[in-house]
Design a protein that fits this description.
The protein is mainly β. Helix content is 12%, strand content 37%. The protein folds into three domains: 2-128, Ankyrin repeat-containing domain (Serine Threonine Protein Phosphatase 5, Tetratricopeptide repeat, Alpha Horseshoe); 148-359, Tachylectin-2, Chain A (5 Propeller); 456-643, Sandwich (Jelly Rolls), CATH 2.60.120.200. The protein contains nine helices and 40 strands. A hairpin with a 2-residue loop joins strand 15 (306-313) and strand 16 (316-323). Helix 1 (2-11) runs parallel beside helix 3 (39-46) and helix 7 (107-113) runs antiparallel to helix 8 (117-127).
């Protein structure tokens, strides 16, 4: 009864009746209506300032709660289009116009989208920037973890972990710190990669990029399987060009993860590694270890210290570390010393970056590296992750770990803090740098001579694993299926949004029984799905969706392949729901299947091995043993990926 009464009172803007109801049933202000809207939010949505003030100042309403989409009370104030309500919520309650919901939508953007000029101008005065000069985090969406950055002149270069994907360790370029594109890879020679027998989640971890005397240096941990006595080694490659080609990896047999290279003012070169921060000297070419490793500082949080980077500034060595584990408690701390190997003093403002709000969509922020612009401004790239609701309501980080960017300011006592200690930003002022919007190498056809840099293989492809001929991609069938580490020629690209559409045209193949070709939604050899043409024991061709979830294989109902030249696949993704469509003319699509919960395509989807990469989508071909005598080549005409 009280719910209907307070709804009616709020919607009719009857403050007296609201007061009466809340005196009799005070807790109802924190209840939701049939649409899931909190009563305090409903009040903000009316735009009645007096009601909002009463609820904030005299009721039991909490101002730190959010709805199912992570919208807060200011989002609802923006819906009301009332500048007075929004002003009160900002100035007296302390709400931020740049707080993002699960879709990263902020109240500021809502006002812009509504063409609410008065509210836009107010938010602009609060933020100090118009919307056109702001950017969203993450700046690199999808599977771009463990960023490291370096500036050379007016250009910025960043590397990210690649694990068992080939080419190894993507190198991205930017001029404005916000817009990036891949220009090359640190390891492009299949014979140097050594990833073919590694489990998913192994391979190349946490690379670092630096520049010294005309050369770019990239170092990373090479993480092996757990079936030997040595699990980790470090590699170093170098090149005079940021895009490469890079030298054959030099191997440094020092255990640990997350290497970085620091060059002191005297030209002596060092490598840092976890646990904590250990340091040892390298030769001038950074190819050999020439001293024993020694601990310089364990860390401030004292839990899972890793990702060490050293910056020398104003007579201090500043040591940045990732701590707290890679989950909710992930963070960045800093310590400093007057001597490189001296005693390090922890920053009194630690952690200088951490997400304190466990309800926010951007989480697990850590593993950062600072960079100074040519204008003297400071920024940090760092790792973050976004989660949506998965199986049984559990968090599902299907995009993997991503890259974010926030400004660094230096305190009067000489300490760096990130985003004024507010945690990750959702909407942030752009750096004062010349903007460059790169043309996406995202063409849907295969008319170029080679694959664009957005494409990657799960482990190295065979020498003749793919061909581009007459505008078509010919993908060789693998003798081993996708559930094997020996599977070959799986061509993939990152899923970069929670909602996307993937479309593919493939020539109807000629298959022997047991063979299948098509598209895949892929996480690793343990968890993936196929949407493909299969050849049954009878020799007939069918279109089917097959799920691989650990030891379980689920074969869904199928439809026959028509006698046409091409088959068209379409996958429509909305969060963890995927709908599969097929067509034989590219115009009239039939729904084949809907899967409501592809939770297994995320980090938390299976408790097996190392799972911290990200969901991928792409093409494959499986020939089985018949591929030894008569190689199967699947012919793909186009592949389109659109974030929706």
């Amino acid at each position: 009864m009280f719910m209907k009464e307070i709804q009616k009172a709020i919607l009719s803007e009857n403050l007296g009746r609201i007061e009466e109801i809340l005196k009799e049933e005070p807790k109802i202000i924190n209840e939701t209506d049939e649409n899931g809207i909190l009563m305090a939010f409903l009040a903000a949505k009316t735009g009645n300032l007096e009601i909002v003030k009463y609820i904030a100042e005299y009721s039991m309403a909490s101002m730190n709660i959010v709805d199912k989409d992570n919208k807060n009370i200011l989002h609802y104030g923006a819906m009301s289009k009332s500048t007075d309500v929004c002003r009160y919520l900002v100035e007296k309650i302390g709400m931020s116009p740049t707080a993002g919901d699960n879709n990263l939508l902020t109240p500021y953007e809502m006002a812009v989208n509504d063409n609410n000029t008065e509210l836009v101008e107010y938010f602009k005065s609060v933020v100090g920037c118009d919307i056109e000069n702001m950017y969203h985090n993450p700046i690199r969406t999808g599977f771009y973890p463990d960023p490291s950055i370096v500036r050379v002149g007016t250009d910025y270069y960043m590397v990210n972990s690649s694990f068992i994907y080939f080419p190894c360790i993507p190198i991205s370029h930017s001029t404005d710190l916000v817009n990036w594109h891949i220009i090359g890879y640190a390891i492009t020679n299949p014979e140097w990669a050594n990833i073919d027998k590694l489990e998913g989640g192994r391979g190349y971890w946490a690379p670092d990029i630096s520049y010294y005397e005309g050369k770019f240096y990239i170092t990373a941990t090479y993480r092996m399987n757990d079936d030997g006595t040595v699990y980790r080694k470090q590699i170093v490659v170098s090149s005079e060009k940021p895009e490469g080609p890079y030298s054959k990896p030099a191997i440094i047999d020092e255990d640990g993860i997350d290497p970085s290279i620091f060059t002191d003012d005297d030209g002596r070169r060092y490598m840092l590694l976890n646990r904590g921060a250990r340091i040892f000297e390298l030769d001038k070419n950074a190819e050999k270890q020439i001293s024993e490793a020694q601990m310089i500082y364990y860390g401030d949080n004292k839990r899972a210290p890793e990702g060490p980077h050293i910056l020398k500034k104003d007579g201090y060595y500043y040591l940045f570390q990732a701590e707290g584990g890679t989950g909710i408690g992930h963070r960045i701390s800093v310590a400093r010393s007057k001597e490189l190997k001296g005693n390090y003093e922890p920053c009194p403002y630690n952690p200088i970056m951490r997400q304190m709000d466990e309800n926010s969509i951007i989480q697990r922020c850590g593993h950062g590296k600072p960079v100074m612009t040519q204008n003297g401004q400071w920024y940090m790239v760092y790792l973050c992750g976004r989660k949506i609701t998965g199986k049984n309501g559990e968090p599902c980080s299907i995009l993997g770990r991503e890259t974010a960017l926030d400004p660094i300011t230096w305190t009067a006592d000489g300490w760096p803090i990130v985003n004024n200690l507010k945690g990750p930003s959702y909407l942030q002022k752009k750096p004062d740098l010349p903007e460059t919007i790169w043309e996406e190498n995202n063409r849907t056809d295969f008319s170029a001579k080679d694959l664009f840099s957005i494409w990657t293989f799960s482990r190295t492809p065979e020498n003749d694993g793919y061909k581009i001929k007459d505008g078509r991609l010919l993908l060789k069938g693998s003798v081993n299926d996708m559930d094997s580490m020996l599977s070959k020629n799986i061509l993939l690209r990152r899923q970069t949004a929670f909602c996307f559409i993937a479309e593919c045209e493939m020539k109807v193949p000629k298959l022997d029984k047991g063979q299948d070709v098509g598209i895949t939604c892929y996480y690793d050899e343990n968890t993936y799905l196929k949407f493909a043409v299969f050849c049954e024991e009878s020799g007939s061709l069918i279109i089917r969706v097959l799920e691989k979830i650990g030891d379980n294989v689920i074969k869904h109902s199928s439809v026959p392949v028509k006698e046409k030249d091409s088959v068209y696949f379409k996958v429509v993704t909305r969060g963890i729901k995927r709908t599969f469509y097929a067509s034989f003319d590219g115009k009239n699509y039939d729904e084949i299947l809907q899967l409501d919960n592809v939770y297994y395509l995320c980090d938390e989807g299976l408790k097996k091995g190392k799972r911290f990469t990200g969901a991928m989508v792409g093409m494959y071909a499986y020939s089985g043993e018949k591929g030894n005598s008569e190689p199967l080549f699947a012919e793909f005409v186009s592949f389109k990926y659109i974030n929706d």
